[in-house]
Write a structure and sequence with these properties.
mainly alpha; two-stranded antiparallel sheet; 40 helices
Length: about 850
Amino acid sequence: MFLPHMNHLTLEQTFFSQVLPKTVKLFDDMVCELTSQARGLSSQNLEIQTTLRNILQTMVQLLGALTGCVQHVCATQESIILENIQSLPSSVLHVIKSTFVHCKNSESVYSGRLHLVSDLLQALFKEAYSLQKQLMELLDMVCMDPLVDENDDILNMVIVIHSLLDICSVISSMDHAFHANTWKFIIKQSLKHQSIIKSQLKHKDIITSLCEDILFSFHSCLQLAEQMTQSDAQDNADYRLFQKTLKLCRFFANSLLHYAKEFLPFLSDSCCTLHHLYLQIHSKFPPSLYATRISKAHQEEIEGAFLVTLDPLISQLLTFQPFVQVVLDSKLDLPCELQFPQCLLLVVVMDKLPSQPKEVQTLWCIDSQASETTTRISLLKAIFYSFEQCSGELSLPVHLQGLKSKGKAEVAVTLYQHVCVHLCTFITSFHPSLFAELDAALLNAVLSANMITSLLAMDAWCFLARYGTAELCAHHVTIVAHLIKSCPGECYQLMNLSILLKRLFFFMAPPHQLEFIHKFSPKEAENLPLWQHISFQALPAELRKQTVHEVSTVGTAECRKWLSSSRTLGELESLNTVLSALLTICNSAGEALDTGKQTAIVEVVSQLWAFLNIKQVADQPYIQQTFSLLLPLLGFFIQTLDPKLILQVVTLQTSLLKLEPPDYVRLAVLDFVSSLGKLFIPEAIQDRILPNLSCIFALLLADRSWLLEQHTLEAFTQFAEGTNHEEIVPQCLSSEETKNKVVSFLEKTGFVDETEAAKVERVKQEKGIFWEPFANVTVEEAKRSSLQPYAKRARQEFPWEEEYRSALHTIAGALEATESLLQKGPAPAWLLMEMEALQERMDKLKRYIHTLG
């Protein structure tokens, strides 16, 4: 009533600053009165009912009066300067927020008596809704001078935006459309006044709220999709709600995309939030093991409408160093369910880098230490490490969308294929200045204790050998050869390098193979450790024949040298290397051995066998390895062996198996006895060999090692199909359990009938058990051969052991409870900060334990 009679330029001084603070206090007092008296509300207590309804009615009228104030300002001014109405927006926003909070909490405030005031609460909500809508129209008319860096208008606008942000958190579950419109206004005003408020905005709060709303709407979308998948009947109402929620997801994602694009330089402290947003979304979406179970149709809808918006977000962040630091942080410690999404993210980054300038590629592909506590690993190292953590996804395996090729339908690929193909594609576009990083990352991964990671690196290296020049391939083969020669004894690193050498050697050009032979001459015994790992099939026919002749000549000579020496255990290591080289010849180029060389090998092998006895083979690891190498050599020449020697071998094997030797020794025994299936045993020694054979198979078939059991079933089947001595086959089946095992294997039955869901749950449990980083093997440890047993260490007693176990059990339970809550919905903003504080305490405890140790 008074406003039309006042000068609009002096409204703030004469009216708003005087009246609105009192109005806000009055409104807060009424809300407080409602909350305190609502407990006494009942249909019988008409006095309290009347009082509460009168208060609510007054609040509705007060909101109406504020709406009139806002409308008056809009009507009388074409452009608005916030300084002239300074008290109005803040007061109105305070009242709006209080109203929405009261409405949101009405069920708990009024308990079971809500129906007595529900009509006024609805009116109150509508009036607040209308008031906010009118205020947003007013704020849209605000003009700010972009040339002025510091004034009250800037601060006031920032306060308005963050007040609206608070309102968003209140109404997010009350009215989706209103919530989205409020966000739209926040983004619009932030961009409109970007140049003057960008330094004052609390960007982290805005990004965090947006990410929380994205996750909440995404989880709601997944829940609806899951309900529709589980329900047989098609409910159109559910599907419409699903589409509406999906549209909301897309809106929030596009808002985040737009905001991040405009304010990227100010998002340093939001990169962790953005990173986790990507990971959490993909952890709940197929093909993640932890994904919600939804139909293929719903999956494609979500992908097409929502997930596609995450790709340009990553493109925006690609050049932002703080984001690179977060993604490649050497101390990044992700839970099991986020390792697979991290791997997918790194592959996405890898796909985008070829189109980026050299500086961006360098940023991602080189290790860096920002400070004493902050270290960044290279993208390639991160990919191999992340891939290594995806044991469950690799073993299931999960399938991803494959690459499209001309004329062929798109097929799903395993995680291994997905990473391998994209890694090889990335290698083709790798900047020449970063080749050293590529070599180092591949070599580091090849030397990994994790077999599947090493295999991935080998596949990528072989692709590089084929894609690159012949000279590059030859150079790499030479480097690997030198590394093998310098390996300090038996270790898994040596095994990995030997497999890589064998594969790379096939890609060498014949002239380079000849150079290799000259550089690492097979005529010299010192090079036999190298030639034992090379397949002679990789050489051209003439060169193969020559090299086989030279290796076999040196090998048999070295065997004779050992036979004529003192034959100490210390010399067995070099003898085993020689035997391994001879076995490589037999396995990869046996046809290139002339009769003379075959005879020479059989002769020295037979002489070496004569020196073995059961006690030595049972007790000494080096002799066990010699034994395991002699058996396949004897098996290769089985048709030419003296029957008496075969009897000696079988008799020793029977006695040895009863002493339970290591698995690799039993596998060598298995290979030899399976080769006897092709041999006709002379009648004169049948009664001594055949009982031993049946005893060997019976012992191996009864073994509890699943790996040995599988190999035994295969070898026994091969033996039974090829032998002329069929009478011993039933003698090998010493028990009913063994018979059933063999029958199940032959009939391909007896498998555990496991549903897809049960299989996924089992793999998740296995992943949780196996998810431990491999211990780093030091150079000194590598020098100690794995064949040499470690001295036993006395068990140490701890007086507080049970108390420690109880405390750790409590911690584990708390972590499981937190993990369960995170799967149900988004985490509160304070959770990450509290977890980081706990992590610091954990690190402090670790350091203290190390000092005690």
